[in-house]
Specification:
Layout: H1 2-69, H2 78-91, E1 95-101, E2 107-114, H3 121-133, E3 144-146, E4 150-154, E5 165-178, E6 181-189, H4 191-198, E7 207-212, E8 217-222, H5 234-241, E9 256-261, E10 267-274, E11 280-287, H6 288-291, H7 293-306
Antiparallel strand pairs: 1-2, 1-6, 3-5, 4-5, 5-6, 7-8, 7-11, 9-10, 10-11
């Protein structure tokens, strides 16, 4: 009987030990595979959102390039140029203000178009000052340059038939070099960009955020859960992900993903994808616990099978 128990115990050990070893190996390889897939999925979400944001500007720029290529600005008279500006303003709803500028950043006389029911003189002056500060020298190989994005919030003024404004905008300049016209300057509303971001799938508690290189929050889409990144955090988040970012310097054209601690007991998995021009960052985030939920489920499944 003692021999039987000894043989039985040996058989159990000879069976259980290999199964346990195989189980641990399977858990380790499965966890690594699932974590890799989770990181890749987060990166793909950031890349997809970044392509959508870049496509917003590419659509505007290609449309204007096609339109301007059919005209010789140097040979157009004042009336023809005014009609061209009015046509662009009506055709592109994202354009709030548009004007031709000389080499010194001054708008050419009577070559400015905007909706006077929406744009106040002070806002027009502020826009022109931002256009004048756009520096093409650091982007000599690019025909398009942008200012830093900024927010406009103003109540309506019914007595003067002036509409309310609540939008994020950016000044954009397209180099032309057509006679006395050095470039075309515009104020672009980014409300349509917010609508594009809203169509991106982010999961229950995931988020995607488009921020400038200085951390200004431009657009955001959150899941059905609460925001995991506060409105004051995007700037610090950008510095953590890409420590060298600066509004005056281009964002490094490198994507990445990494876990980040954002609170005392909260960690997120954050992926980022830079836009070429403007130099902004698209960031996709998800709570680390939720991102690794499939990993924990797989681990317990393997343990159950081993037992």
């Amino acid at each position: 009987m003692k021999l039987f128990r000894t043989i039985t115990l040996m058989l159990v050990l000879l069976t259980a030990v290999p199964i346990a070893v195989v189980g641990f190996i399977l858990i380790d390889s499965s966890v690594d595979t699932l974590k890799t897939l989770t990181w890749e999925l987060q990166q793909e979400r950031a890349d997809h959102a970044g392509r959508a944001a870049a496509g917003f500007f590419e659509n505007i720029i290609s449309d204007l390039d096609l339109l301007l290529a059919n005209f010789s600005l140097a040979n157009m008279n004042l009336r023809q140029r005014q009609e061209l500006l009015s046509f662009i303003l009506q055709k592109r709803p994202e354009v709030n203000i548009i004007a031709f500028y000389d080499n010194h950043g001054r708008s050419l006389h009577n070559l400015l178009a905007f909706d006077s029911r929406r744009i106040l003189p002070s806002e027009l002056t502020d826009h022109q000052s931002k256009v004048q500060k756009i520096d093409f020298s650091k982007k000599s190989d690019l025909p398009v340059a942008f200012s830093a994005p900024y927010r406009i919030q103003r109540k309506a003024r019914p007595k003067f038939s002036i509409e309310a404004r609540n939008e994020t905008v950016v000044a954009m300049a397209i180099r032309l070099n057509a006679g006395d016209t050095a470039f075309l300057g515009m104020e672009i509303s980014l409300n349509s960009l917010q609508a594009i971001i809203e169509r991106i799938r982010v999961g229950q508690q995931g988020e995607v955020m488009l921020i400038s290189s200085s951390g200004f929050l431009i657009a955001r889409k959150s899941g059905i859960g609460q925001k995991i990144v506060s409105d004051k955090l995007p700037g610090r988040l950008a510095l953590i992900l890409v420590p060298s970012v600066d509004e005056k310097e281009p964002v490094p054209m490198v994507s990445g993903v990494r876990p980040i601690k954002v609170g005392e007991d909260q960690q997120i998995l954050a992926a980022y994808a830079p836009l070429a021009n403007p130099a902004w960052l698209m960031i996709s985030t998800e709570p680390l616990d939720q991102a690794y939920a499939a990993t924990r489920k797989m681990t317990w499944q393997v343990i159950t099978v081993v037992l």
